[in-house]
Each structure stands twice: as C-alpha cells, then as structure tokens.
Design a protein that fits this description.
12 helices
C-alpha cells in the first residue's frame, strides 16, 4: 500500500470513527442545518449549548463561542461554514498537545510505562504502539507487568504475537517490579530500542496501585536514571467526562506524561478528547478508532478537529 493510500484509508477510518460524535454535534445544531444564520448573541448562545451537549465541555464551548463571536468570521453562515469554523477552533485547542511518542533515549531501551483502568483498551493499545514502532524500524519488547490478572498476561502474549514482538512474562501474582527488572535487562541485552511495560489498573485500590507503580519506578530508576522516559495513560473515550477523574488519579499516582485515547469508533463522546486537551494540556500521542493493528495512529490535530466537527 502506498503512503498516500494508507493516509487516505486512515482518514476515512478516522471520519467513520468520529461519525457518531459529528452526528451528535449535528443533532445539537439542528437549528442551523440547511439554513443561513446570523451570528448574534442568541445564536452564539445556542452554538455554545450545542457544543456542551456534544461533550466538548463548558470551558471549550465558551471559548469557541467567544471566538466565533469575536468578529473574525463572517456574520452570516450556513451549516458547512459553521462546521468549518468549529473545526478550526477545535484544531487551535488541539495543536499544542499533538505530540508524537518519540524514541529518544540513549542508551537504549526507551522505556514506556503504560497505565490505565482495566477495560480501557490498555493491553491492546500496547501492542498497537509496538506495531507503530516496528513500522518505524524500531525493535520492541513488551513486559506483562499486570501480574495481578492471568487474563492480562495471556492477552498481551496474544497481541505480542500478532505484532511480532517478544513479550516478557512472569507468574500470576508475581512481583511486577521484579518482572520489570528482568525485562529491562533482556531488552538491554537484546539491543531493543523500546521497552513497553503493561501495569495493573486496579484504581479502586489506589494505595496498592500507587505502591506498586512507585516500586516499578524505583527499580527502573536504578537501571536508568531517566527511566521511565514516558508514562502514557490509556483512556476509553466511551466514559465521556469521567475520563477527567481517571486523568487526575493516574496523574497523581503515576506521573502521567501523555495520553492515548481509544474506542473512538464506538462512541458519540469523542468531544471529551478536546475537553481533556483544554483542561489538562497533557500531550496526546495517538488515537484509536478500531480493533485492528492499523487502527491506532499518531494524533493529528487538524485531521481530528475536522472529523469531530463533521467538516470536509
């Protein structure tokens, strides 16, 4: 497949993935569909309410409505023009946080600690990130650090096989920090560029999770003072505004440095990604819009803004 064909295919999947979000926005903008509207105070209030109802959040909605009413745009618009403006304003919010997950560590390996609640798509996201890195000619190793759940270990092994990368595992209930120590040693010995570590997602037991992650970080720090080089939180878009509590919890527990948002194909709540970007300013590295290996790609602010707004 050519690069151009691959990009076109991804854009189409992205639009399909955000179709429910853009449809929801359209439903909330029903007063503007098929009409030419004047951007007076009443209209701007309706636009703001429509954006809030589309999970963009009050702060983002107010910011976009204010910008639309600032005089930078034509005072009369049709629906397509309004969607274009919303896309432009969303992109302005997203561009500062659109940052790829770059492999920069020297000496290798570059260590990525992946955190998130169980069921967020964390394990499959790890394999998809591994696939992305192997496409870039990096060698990757995975570590099944969620030793609490046998299912998580088996799932990572299965996805590792699909991605064609080795997975370091231990016994169920084993010491996660000990496994991470072994995985780092093997990654270093093998000359692996990237080590991606899965972790437990038992957020209901915050203290236990905090202790385990702190131990893992201490072990990594002894092996390489710069590790982990990234702490990536995987968020399930279907939880909507509840994503905020997860960001805050894992930011405090694990020192999150960036986000990956998954399951954008099955939800009308994709607008929460914009709200999270505006509220926390954490880098967004990638988005997932499907179950296959190629359905996770680096985050592009302009592409995503147009998909959310339903702009062409």
């Amino acid at each position: 497949m050519s690069t151009e064909a691959g990009k076109t295919g991804w854009l189409e999947r992205l639009r399909r993935g955000f179709s429910r979000t853009s449809e929801r926005l359209g439903e909330n903008l029903t007063g503007f569909v098929g009409k030419t509207v004047v951007l007076d105070d009443a209209t701007l209030g309706e636009i703001e309410e429509a954006l809030i109802a589309s999970d963009l959040g009050p702060s983002v909605a107010a910011r976009i409505a204010k910008s639309i009413g600032s005089g930078h745009y034509e005072r009369t618009l049709d629906e397509a023009g309004l969607r274009d403006i919303i896309a432009s304003e969303i992109a302005a919010i997203l561009r500062p946080v659109a940052k790829p997950l770059d492999i920069t560590a020297f000496p290798r390996p570059h260590v990525i600690l992946v955190v998130g609640v169980n069921g967020s798509g964390k394990t499959t996201t790890i394999a998809k990130l591994a696939h992305l890195f192997t496409e870039q000619d990096y060698t990757v190793m995975l570590a099944a650090g969620d030793t609490f759940r046998a299912a998580a270990i088996a799932q990572l092994q299965t996805w590792g096989e699909r991605a064609g990368v080795p997975v370091i595992t231990g016994k169920e209930g084993g010491d996660a920090a000990g496994l991470v120590f072994d995985a780092h040693a093997r990654a270093k010995a093998n000359g692996s560029d990237v080590l991606i570590i899965d972790t437990a997602g038992r957020l209901q037991n915050k203290q236990g999770l905090m202790d385990e992650l702190a131990k893992i970080r201490r072990v990594l720090g002894k092996l390489d003072p710069a590790a982990p080089h990234d702490v990536v939180l995987v968020l399930d878009a279907t939880v909507g505004q509840n994503a905020f509590s997860q960001i805050e919890a894992f930011r405090d527990i694990a020192g999150v440095t960036g986000l990956v948002m998954t399951k954008l194909d099955g939800t009308a709540r994709g607008g929460v990604l914009v709200a999270a970007a505006e509220r926390y300013g954490l880098p967004i590295h990638a988005v997932g819009v499907g179950e296959t290996m190629i359905d996770l790609r680096p985050f592009d602010a302009d592409e995503l803004a147009r998909a959310i707004a339903g702009a062409r």
